[in-house]
Amino acid sequence: MPHHPSQSRQRCRQLCLLTFGLFTTLSALAQRTQSYQEPDYHYRNGLELFERSNYAAARYEFRQYLEPRRGQGASTLLNTNDQNAVDAEYYIALTSLYVDEPGAELLVDRFVKNHSAHPKASQLYGDLGSYYFAREDYTKAIGFLEKAVAQGGNNSRYKYQLALSYYNTQDLQRALPLLNEVKLDPNSTDAPAASYYAGVINFRNRNFNEAVADFRRVETNPIYQNQVPNWIAQALYRQRRFDDLLAYTEPLLRRSNGAGLSEVALFTAEVYYQQNQFAKAIPYYKQYIAAAGAKAPGAVRFRYGQSLFRTGAYPDAITQLKSLATGKDTTAQYAAYTLGVSYLQTQNPTYALNAFDQAGRLSFNRDIQEEARFNHAKLLVDQNNGADAVKELTAFLKQYPDSKFENEANELVGEAYFASNNYPAAIAYIEGLKRRTPRINTTYQRLTYNQGVNEFNAERYPQAVANLDKSLRYPVDNALQQAAQFWKAEAYSAGKQYDTAIPLYASIAKGAGEYASKSLYALGYAYYNKKDYARALPYFRDFVSRKADNDEQAQVLDATIRLADAYFAGKQYENAMRYYDQAIARNAPDKDYAAYQKAVILSYVGRDAEAKAQFDQVQRQFPNSRFVDESLFQTANVDFEKGAYQVAIRGFSKLIDGKPNSKLVPAALLKRAIAYGNLQQYDPAVADYKRILDNYGDSEQAQSALLGIQNTLNDAGRPEEFSQVLGQYKKSNPGSTDVERVQFENARNIYANEKYAQAIQSFIAFLQEYPASPNLNEARYYLAESYRQTDDATNALRYFNQIITDNRSSFLVRAATRAAELETQQKNYPRAIRNYQLIISKADDKAAQVTAQLGLMDTYFAMPKPDSAAAIARDVVTGGNVVPGAQNRAQLMLGKVAFAKGDYKTAQTELDKTIALGKDVNGAEALYYLGDILYKQKKYKESIASLLKFNEQFGDFEYWKGKAFMLVADNNVALEETAQAKAVLNSIIENSSDQTIVAEAKQKLATLDSKN
């Protein structure tokens, strides 16, 4: 409602007029009293006291003055010709009212009755009415003013005051006629005010035409000119006289755009908004909002935001709508929905997601709620947040079975399942649909392909083939079709069904692209694994000769060595050596193997001196290689095969004495024993044979040693000694039916059934009863494992370390691996490092070595020795993916080392490489660190953009996904987007399945709430 002039100023003016009138009267009387005699003393005092507002004392003096003049008592009428006496009675009545004397109104009525013709009679009602009007006692004022008006006293002024008294007591029906009379009186100074208040009453009574006429009558009056335009604009708006309104307001606003015309601007804006002329509405809304500030109604700010939105001013629309969207009313729902679309238009899907979520939670407008929920679910799919999208879309289809979005929602469910990596559920959902659109079939091709690859990685090869066949039935995407064919061949190959795999590989290899090249490599291996080296050879050769991409360099180097192996198997020794040399020159991960194989070839072709030199080079160039022992053995064997037994004995002794824990010691002892025997040195020959039987009774050399010692003793003429040797051998190597073996197998069965507490007791009993058992170290290993499974690290390490100390068992590498893990958990890093280094030197296969390297790398990083960790990581990266994910993990380590040093540029490069290698947990952690780097550099928006890739690329990894979105919340806080930060944290709390993450998110949210 527009503001009208302050009534208090009007009352003040009226009170001043009354006081001025009294003052004039009193002054005149005071002048006359100069000629009065002593009897006028009380009258004169009464006037002076009245003038000083001492009404009680004045009344007393006036009464004293009148007493001698009332001969017959108080009821005696005064002579109206006695002016002073009548005035004294007037003042007595007046002052009695002023001091709230009981019966004062009777005095007033009696005065009027007794002196009805006297001017003071009508003046008394009017003055008293004006007095109470000025005091805002409108009820009393009405009583006197009604009488004053009825007697016709000072008619216009009293009518206005009576009308305002009615107005202020909400008796508008009685006020309006009086105001209508006064407003048309050209001689009344109250006419403008009367017109204004008449306009207000007519407006309230919805008599808008009359109201406009009243307001126009005073629109140039200085007192009302700032208020009248607002009333006129509102009246025209209420009548929907939009053309008249614009014709009136726009010229006015062009002349002045001050705050006093803010409501005029508002109604102008509202007209243009209703006419969908949003561009014209904007400046007027802006003027109104600037004046009203925080007092501007939410609905008005919404329409301003809508106008900005409709004209494409999305950032400004967001600014206006943000604060409205958090409410719980209709305006909030519309604002949140519009805000969501605005965020989408400004490429901010994360904030859009939160806005649609807010709009979807409110049910004031069902259509808006439905569309908001659908858009929210659709955005979840777009951001690859599949798990949440599945829940939302399923709930949406259930709540809105006849929705206009039904078809699209059904299509999106499959894509949401795909994004959530819940491929079996997605496949089942699509297979259950009665109607499948081309878009759904495209999704189905991808889903079944991915599920096939997952089954392959889990080594469930028949299931992999079944899913890949489903994918191949819908060849929408040609590249995906080729990939499915390749992995189907890989599944057959992994299942050793090479004859089935080979035609599939061959069909792919005829084409071009990534999988054609991979198929050449796979064909080579398929024939290689069939030991059909002649047919493997051309495929390896073609693969190596192609200019492979950088991503395939590890496979190229591996294929080079396999090509050399194929030539070796075909006895094409020169070609074999050429490719072994090529692998060595290109620094292949298995260059120690290539160098060793080259030496073996040299020995095969009779180039003994070169062979021995090459074996020696292996020992010098690769001192930690597992082929050092082989080289020592083969060097001695070259001499052995030539019959140079004395030289051979020295060579075998070098291995036996220098590498006492080598697995080749039994073979070296056997060869040395034979060499001794050939030289007729029977005692050392017998000693070597006995050493094999005593210490390596379970080795494959034991039977040869038993036969060899028998022949040697016969040659030495001491056959009788063989009986004792044989008896001892039988005692140390009892048959499988013996009680010892049965007892051991029983303990191992208990372990296999995961009854670890009982297994501990069984293995302890076995070790106590059979301390010299050939199964000693195996029993120690399972006993240690049982302790590890029951979280008794101390006892687990005790028995693992016994195996490590013995340093001869086939369980050595496994024991060292477990011990290293336990030592790392207990932060005994130096001991862990020693164990990992032992594994690397002792492991027979490359996978075990790489696994140990990874453990060593992580241990160095934890110590922390970042440079050592980085050195190991670089070795693993260049060594190829021998262990699945090893390259990714090592690449991540390079990024983490650079991050820890604050070298963010290098860290970003290494972390980007990690993500490029594969979509595994290492990539997820790498993406988190990339976001953290940007956050630390205060690049908050860039950090959010980077982290939002999580749902798309790494949605399966709940821990790192939760960490990433908490970092998104931190970025929002830094950007002073607290509402967005809270929305993100609430989403984590509601949706994350990782309780550690949920707890951390709750803590962050509580901290944010405490600051607001």
UniProtKB/TrEMBL annotation:
Coiled-coil segments: none
Coiled coil among keywords: no
TPR repeat start and end residues: 122-155, 517-550, 557-590
Origin superkingdom: Bacteria
Gene3D superfamilies membership: Tetratricopeptide repeat domain (1.25.40.10)
InterPro entries: Sel1-like, TPR-like_helical_dom_sf, TPR_rpt
Pfam families: ANAPC3, TPR_16, TPR_6
SMART domains: SEL1 (SM00671), TPR (SM00028)
Keyword entries, A-Z: Signal, TPR repeat
Signal sequence annotation: 1-30
Record carries keyword Methyltransferase: no
Name this protein carries in UniProt: Tetratricopeptide repeat protein
Organism in which the protein naturally occurs: Spirosoma sordidisoli
Organism lineage: Bacteria, Pseudomonadati, Bacteroidota, Cytophagia, Cytophagales
